[in-house]
Write a structure and sequence with these properties.
The chain is mainly alpha-helical. It has one domain: Ferritin. About 85% of the residues lie in helices and about 0% in strands. The radius of gyration is 15 Å and the shape is elongated. InterPro entries: DUF2383 (IPR019052), Ferritin-like (IPR012347), Ferritin-like_SF (IPR009078).
């Protein structure tokens, strides 16, 4: 079970690292202070999740992933296009990333056990729902 938990948590970790990278890129292209503040809050939430997942993987005796993997490459391409198109497109791209992250947690929660499942169910998934909702609200204010 520990190997399955480590694999699943590493998948979540790569998604969170991708989110951190993508938020940092987006924040660098946002001039509106209100939008930047909202995005920085989401960035900090994702950074916290990266640390929580890394700690759990290490407690399970696993080695945390270092990079964002294939999803990170895709997210960078999407965000790069959004940067050219402006803040609204950047927020839209970030919300799509939040959708993806939420779907990952919901789909793979059942692959975890014990403390790993508790972490996902009680911390990671609720936090992901909060950042997803924050981006959805922000996107609605931009239209």
């Amino acid at each position: 079970m520990a190997n399955t938990d480590v694999e699943t948590l590493n998948s979540f970790l790569r998604g969170e690292i991708s989110a951190v990278e993508t938020y940092r890129q987006a924040i660098g292209h946002v001039s509106d202070d209100r939008i930047r503040s909202q995005l920085e809050d989401c960035l900090h939430d994702h950074e916290h999740r990266v640390e929580s997942i890394r700690e759990r993987i290490e407690k399970l005796g696993g080695t945390p992933s270092e990079g964002s993997g294939l999803w990170g490459t895709f997210a960078k391409l999407v965000q790069g296009g959004a940067d050219i198109l402006g803040e609204r497109a950047a927020v839209q791209a970030l919300e799509e990333g939040e959708d993806h992250g939420l779907a990952d947690y919901q789909r793979d929660l059942g692959k975890t056990h014990g403390e790993a499942r508790r972490l996902v169910r009680m911390e990671l998934l609720p936090a992901q729902k909060r950042t997803h909702e924050r981006l959805s609200r922000l996107k609605k204010t931009l239209h």
